[in-house]
Amino acid sequence: MFGYLYLYQDLGLLVLRLALGAAFIVHGYPKLFKMFAGFAGWLDSIGIKPGKFWALVVGVVEFFGGIAIILGLFTQIAAALIAVNMFVAMAKVKWGTTKFVESERMGWELDLVYFAASVMLLVSGAGGYALDYYLPFRF
Questions:
Q1: Dmax over Cα atoms in the chain, in whole Å?
Q2: Residue 139: what pLDDT?
Q3: Exposure of 34 by Cβ count < 10 A (0-12 exposed, 13-18 middle, 19+ buried)?
């Protein structure tokens, strides 16, 4: 019944890229440009040191990785970096301290969705509606 849907795989990957990329641009922007010092201090306080270095890494991966994913440019590299970012966030910040879903505060369910979406783009690539399609080499 739904056998024809494979024709829309590139469209599905575009929708996934737009949603995931936008989410990470919104998460990364304040870490780089508005609350860098506070974020770096928080990283230091939870044992991710040096906080300033890792704040810069996380902000760059999230903000510029989000832009790359939206454009479909070096998508698999950006997706791999975001997947690592989300795995560390779940492992270091959330697991053992929060439940999967919590009503009072954020659980780690959204982190898992971001991780899974990043892995999807890592293994599938960006699809046909992407700048990666025009690169002279493939990953």
A1: 55
A2: 66
A3: exposed
Length in residues, the chain: 139
* Rounded alpha-carbon distances, angstroms, from residue 44 to 37, 39, 60, 116, 125: 11, 9, 18, 27, 34
Residue 7: DSSP 8-state: G
Query: Side chain identity at 101, as an amino acid letter?
Result: V
Q: How far apart are CA 1 and CA 137, in angstroms?
A: 36
List the Cα angle 50/54/58 in 5-degree steps.
170
Q: Which two tokens stand for residue 126?
A: 């960006």
Q: Give the pLDDT confidence score for residue 94 in this predicted structure.
A: 74
pLDDT, tens only, 33-90: 999 999 999 999 999 999 999 999 999 999 999 999 999 999 999 999 999 999 999 8
Where do the structural domains in the chain lie, given as residue ranges? 8-130
pLDDT, mean over the chain: 91
DSSP 91: I
